[in-house]
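Quick one: structure tokens for this chain, please?
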Amino acid sequence: MRRKGFLFSCAVILPVLFSGCFSTIRTATRPGTDFSRIKSVLVLEPEYAQQRAVTDEFARQLLMRGYQVKVGGPADGSDAWLQITVTQFVPDAKYLVPLETSGNRQTLVLNAVTPISGRNLYPSGSGAGIENARVLVSNASLSLSARLLAPQTQELLWSGAVTYEGLDLDVAVEGSVASLFKKFPLQ
């Protein structure tokens, strides 16, 4: 019985621990653009405050690459503007799932799934002190698009989009931005 509980925990938890999947990174670049002339980037303020974590991660990644980074509106000067839009935002969820044991079989009780909160959950013999219960985790998912614009003409220089799934929302934000930077013209 203990071995089956361990195997069940491994089957649920190991895929979650190694999660971090992203879809194909879709990008397009304006032909003939000399990106080497861009030294400063204005990360435009997000439309919604909830998107600030994503714009902050873009700013952090640009700083790591040696760019001068400003955050603000179009009135602030820079060599290029970076506009980020979050198109899908699905936070991670955790559920407490009671199981009934009948002989050698474990049966999932479908009508008694309880959402639980907390950032980190650890495997245990019983979930939240309830015998024969397990904790199941659904990953966070984030879809975003980014556009690099010329400030004077607002001409589109580069565009990219990605969807990323991570263990929690922080991982999804960092992973989606890092994935998109693999195809970013400013290196």
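DSSP finds three helices and eleven strands in the chain.
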